[in-house]
Amino acid sequence: GRPADLAGRRLVVSAGGTREAIDPVRFLGNRSSGLQGYALARTALARGAEVTLVAANVTLPDPAGATVVRVESALELREAVLKAAEEADAVVMAAAVADFRPARRNESKVKKTSADPDPIHLVKNPDILAELGERRRQGEGPSPRVIVGFAAETDDVLANGQAKLARKGCDLLVVNQVGENLAFGTPDNAAVVLASEGGRVEIPRGPKEALADVVWDLVAERLA
Ligand code: C5P
Hints:
Elements: E1 10-16, E2 20-23, E3 26-28, H1 35-46, E4 50-56, E5 67-71, H2 74-85, E6 90-93, E7 100-102, E8 122-124, H3 128-138, E9 146-153, H4 157-168, E10 172-177, E11 188-195, E12 200-207, H5 208-223
Parallel strand pairs: 1-4, 1-6, 4-5, 6-9, 9-10
Antiparallel strand pairs: 2-3, 7-8, 10-11, 11-12
Helix pairs in contact: 1-5
This protein binds cytidine-5'-monophosphate (C5P).
Cytidine-5'-monophosphate binds at residues 74, 93, 95, 97, 99, 125, 127-129, 149-151.
């Protein structure tokens, strides 16, 4: 069994991938399954935590005991995470949030015509993780003591990861090694966790639950 070392802790986990509407039937999306975020929620619950799971377009069963908030877009995910974060000890942003969204959503389905289609203009989405860090830095209202981000990097993993950790103002950054049947949609994952104070923990390839437990070990250490 797992230790109840997160008993009484209020944790927020975002999971899945956002969808950015083009029209009522179409969206820009990504391949995130939500498996890692759900594994984080299940393991935290097993360790005694109260978990709010902000789930973007995930088709997995709700973890028993979690408060699940379903969202679709990055803007909806932002609202739900920022609200839950006000009462949270820690936030883990495992969701794949779209960096861009279509500038406007068509009211009706875009029709196929003989002419070339109109281009889709994109605008930037807010960076929710960076915003959590910035709000805490500014001392704007109650903030989580521990903020954790995820990042998928293909090359210069450590250098890019370290730079991203600083840029986002988070405490821990879980850098996924992308490729070779890892990460998206698979039960296994491998990563290196970078800490703001400079340390790093390598997590060998294994089930997403195992990676989740290492993340919670590091969070519990910081909350102790
Ligand atoms: O910058 P990048 O997308 O690589 O950062 C990934 C991390 O930032 C993840 O933790 C993701 O949940 C978070 N993120 C966010 N808001 C965005 C984009 C990413 O919170 N708009």
